[in-house]
Amino acid sequence: MSGPVLRVRDLITTFGQGAQALCAVDGVSFDVGPGEVLGLVGESGSGKSVTLRSLLRLLPAGGHVAGRVEWQGRDVLAMSEAELRGVRGGQISMIFQEPMTALNPVLPVRVQIEENLRAHTDLDGRGRRARSRELMDLVGIPDAGRRLDEYPHQFSGGMRQRVMIAIALASDPKLLLADEPTTALDVTIQDQILHLILDLRDALAMSVVFVTHDLGVVSATCDRMAVMYAGRIVEEGAVRDVFAGPRHAYTRGLLGSIPQAGAERSMLLSIEGTPPGLAAIPPGCAFNPRCDFATEICRAVRPDLAEMAPVHRAACHNAEAVAAAGSPVRSALADG
Asked: What distance in Å separates the CA atoms of residue 177 and residue 207, rounded to the nearest whole number?
């Protein structure tokens, strides 16, 4: 594999000013290789979606982002608004979490696809319509010519998500940011959408950053995973390695919550408590109040994200004890 297509270093995202500022993403660093699918995993509130939006500076008022997001040798965070508009939707596209709110309800889907084409291609009106129909066919929407002039409410949830993917792919991006694209879809449609994204990744030589809280989805679709908690990455590595040998107690707890075939009468692991609010992150390791492996150092010193094995990193003072406890998932799941 050649060098990464995306390099993120010390990404920090805050909301508010001065002493009242709250840190939602705290020093996040990762790489994405060519054609690679990286999964960002964690509970709601862990900072996954804010991380994704920060990469393209898609933050609400009051949001501030610092660090470095290197794309094709340039820092996205240092770009002017005009330069950034050439990257957003053109070179890097995003699928938002809920298509019913992300799509404009009063515009036909053709108009919404053509907005991207108008901004990032030189196609004329006839060419944009032809390309829109081609994209609808590409994402598996039947009778695309007729459905181009329909409105979002005339599509099912799965078909709306396919429209969102068509919009994201309109200008042949090299990086796709997918923010929980299968949320609220039934398992059959979810499987179709996941396979569609992987097929498009292969067909378009595209890299993907996939945000999800579903570790089953990670096992089926991702090459590498980064586990987030309280705005930080606490473990990162190849999916198979992390599933087979987690080195952070939080990762182990998430894996233990997965129902597994053949284990109907066994207890699932649970993580007691809830993630901390941004204004109440505890000192030391943020996970220590919920951790069965926590010791005094965990309550006093925040651990660095250290290399535990080749291409496997974890931020845990007791990583060896967690590893010795073993993985709670069966080998078949750990093998993907």
From this structure: 9
